Amino acid sequence: MRKRAEGRRGSTKSTAMLLACAVALTACSTIEPNAATEEPQPTLNVSNEDETSGEDLIEKEVKAEIDRISPEDMTPGQQLVHFRDVIIPSLIPERGADYEARIRYLWDDIADSEKPALPLPPEITMGLLKPLENPHMVNGPFLLEFPVSGEQSEPSPAVLIFPGGGYAFRSEKFEGLHVAEWLNEHGISAFVLNYRLSADPVPLEDARLAMALLRSEAAAYNIDPDRIGVMGFSAGGHLAATLSTLYDDETRAPLPQPYTDYSTRPDFSALAYPVITMRPPYTHQGTRGIITGGDLSDARLESLSAELLVNSATPPAFVWSTITDEIVPYQNSQMYADAMEAHGVPYRLEFYDTGPHGVGLAQDEPDANVWPAQFIDWLNEIEVLR
Fold this sequence. Notes:
The chain is α/β, with parallel strands linked by helices. It has helices at residues 18-24, 54-69, 76-91, 97-101, 173-185, 202-216, 218-221, 235-246, 285-291, 298-303, 331-342, 371-381, and strands spanning 2-5, 29-33, 40-44, 103-105, 142-146, 156-162, 189-194, 223-233, 269-272, 317-322, 347-352. The chain has one domain (2-381): Alpha/Beta hydrolase fold, catalytic domain (Rossmann fold, 3-Layer(aba) Sandwich). 32% of the residues lie in helices and 16% in strands. The strands form 2 sheets. Strands 1-11-10-9-8-6-7-5-4 form a 9-stranded mixed sheet, with helices on both faces. A hairpin with a 6-residue loop joins strand 2 (29-33) and strand 3.
């Protein structure tokens, strides 16, 4: 099904969710209304971008975001304490026995000669975001398993989830665990990927391996290997889009044994307020700075701009954004949908009039709160749910 929806009318009041605050930390572009058209237009607020790393861009925006979300009567010092003691802890899931029981490391069955030496070095270099570092990543990338519970005779569909965070951190609580639990309620098994935070090709290597692993163990998980999709938020949406378009890229390293013979193509995708393009004026500079490794050559940007990578074999997609997103311009979603249209690939595109970036399931948003139900409807339309 192909659909362009203009979004639902509702209150103009936006709910300041903690997730929106967290994901907004990666902002490196802003959107200002055009006086003539009142259509949001992007303006880039970082100069000398060739000389500024993605990490530096994001750290700069972290400080600006702390100032924005803090109560007005706070001093700069109090703002930092509030961020450290209130905001950051709210974003970290409990990682106790239940969490650890769900962990499935991607490298468990791979020969030592085909994987990096362990333990891996710390991932997050920015002091303000350091508490978001996941201590379990020292043993490599891993899935958090949320198979459908209870007795079921038929294999379920499954979704591989990529939390966002600008490739600088992973918002695994609001864009991972909560989403997995919601999918379970609809009879869909879910797997949250804690991918490595690095320049390409590393995150895509983890995504491809995770998809192959799920197919290799489909019987054990009681999932249908022909109904495994991917869902990504923000920069995780970029990872989902590149997995959907570069899964068979022959320039990429082959999968290691025992996963070499398994397909890494998702059967469908869901892209939530995704970063799609690496090219100005609609890119998100912090995400781009990290995933490109600072290489801003035309060839590098084009190789990671998902709207340029779509072809007739790209899986169907459900894509959505809010028009008022000030972090990742909604035009990213439009560009991906336009590419799908040009190649005759089924998609559904939804725009919602109001809502900040990073709202996850968006249940406190007056407009975007319908997207989960619309996504489930779409899964029925494309016969993923039967």
